[in-house]
């Protein structure tokens, strides 16, 4: 018997800031450790990192930082390969941090993933981050077998343009073989929202430390997090019909798909 009798076919999750708070105490110190290993005196403090986050993608972020703050360092024979090597070192440090198990999933993420699986609603990942970062985060939070739960994992450089471009969402929709009208995206940032909305997908925002003051026009709903039955989320703006001060679950997402709201 088909368990999912709604028009909701898939939920597409962003990773950084959405599945887990990875930026301030994950990616940022990993970049700094890589800078140190490369003998660079660069230090991305929490405030500067907030500004740099407007550029998605670690390699792109390093290049942007160099152009803006240390242009003299741009003068290298093969700048792109040098940035790629530096970024590879950063990924190594980030994976070490994940393996320590210090970066938990955000409220409601594991609950919703388990419920969607039970109801046979597809789940997928649409992120800018490096593929190994996604697989490690999933492995160390939901367990090794969780990788097989996802019907598509779209990550990193597999598309030419990172968020806010819609490319990664188009890629995932194609892998799933689904139209955007049957999917919901869960994001935490303005760049992520631009990406998912440009691909025509209704989107829920769970704000994160670095994104709460961004512009979320076009989101179906903006909340602090997905919430748990024991700890309801706070609604920042918007609503889902019949949600009534509750947490985000599969039936709330199905109602959103079926509503005429954005
Ligand atoms: C996440 C990012 C990523 C991470 C770093 O954006 O911008 O660049 O900060 O990952 P989103 P890499 O959540 O919108 O996908 O260093 O592996 O690129
Ligand atoms: Mg994000």
Short structural summary:
With 262 residues, this protein is of the alpha/beta class.
The total beta strand count reads 7
Low-confidence stretches: none
β-strand amount: 5-15%
Q: Based on CA inertia axes, which overall geometry fits?
A: elongated
- State the separation between the terminal residues, measured CA to CA: 31 Å
Order of helices and strands: EHHHHHEHEHEHEEEH
Major beta sheet summary: 7 strands, mixed
Rg from alpha-carbon coordinates:
18 Å
Tally the helices: what do you get? 9
Overall mean pLDDT score? 95
Q: How would you explain this protein's 3D organization?
A:
The chain contains nine helices and seven strands; from the N terminus they run E-H-H-H-H-H-E-H-E-H-E-H-E-E-E-H. The protein has 262 residues and is of the alpha/beta class. Strands 3-2-1-4-5-6-7 form a seven-stranded mixed beta sheet. Strand 2, helix 6 and strand 3 form a beta-alpha-beta unit. Helix 3 packs across helix 4 and helix 4 packs parallel to helix 6. The site of xylulose-1,5-bisphosphate (XBP) has 18 residues, from helix 1 and helix 8.
